[in-house]
Design goal:
The structure holds two protein chains of two kinds.
Chain A lengths: L6 H8 L4 E8 L5 E6 L5 H22 L7 E5 L2 E8 L2 E8 L4 H13 L3
Chain B lengths: L6 H14 L3 E6 L4 E5 L4 H26 L5 E5 L4 E9 L2 E9 L5 H18 L12 H15 L4
Antiparallel strand pairs in B: 1-2, 1-5, 3-4, 4-5
Helix pairs in contact in B: 1-3
Chain lengths: ~120, ~160
Amino acid sequence: MNRTPYAELLSMLSRHRGVVGSFVVSERDGLAVDSNVQIGVHAEAVAALAASLHRKARLACGAAGCGTVTFLRLDAEKGGICAAGRDDLVLVTISEARANIGLLRVEMMRAAKALT
Amino acid sequence: MRTAVEPWLEEPLLRFIDDARVRLALLLESSGRVLAQHGFARSIDVMSACALAAAIHASAAEIGRQLDGNPFTTLHHPGQARQIFLGELPTARGTHILLTVFDDATSIGLVRLYFTELSRRLAAAAPAPLAITTAPSLVDFESDLNRNLAKLFGRI
């Protein structure tokens, strides 16, 4: 299988404690460009829905005059989803409740700057 | 204005339209006979779209068979402002085709996701196949087509 330029980045994010999946997603298409997920994660569904969430967050922030979205975090009962985007590409991670979100946030925001 | 000719099609299709946020949706038999529609204002547009969708689907399936040994079952064309998605939906009542048109309010990823759910719901909701007693004729096809269009546009 051909490796994309994002394979190493996704592998690094997936090594974080509690991270069960990471993706680079096209915000416009809702399709995963590359992914690194554990068995049981519905990669295609998450990619499409996370891209849609990021798009709506971007539009909402634009309408509110807050500028561009730098980091998006969705907390749920058993974990959460984080997203950081640049242009049309969005970096998405799915994590369990035990994940260190602070560290993950720093890594994702740094990695998102390198997305092209 | 009714959405579907047969009641079992209505709820899964409306659910797909709401979830995927598409602009237009057309459900048809592989012969081109319309079964359900959403978003169209004129029956002539539905007829044209059905004929084109059935032809595109048949051509794409044949290309798939020749290239790959298996027919292609879905097709996506992105345009400037709008995109189309065409997909095959097998049910106990035969193979149906969905043609949908969408814009920036949604994405191809979401359309594909909810198309998969639609396929599952239709397969589960489809009643038992009707017993075929005679071979279908062109006259029956045309009268069925016109009757379905009349039902969908509230003329009967």
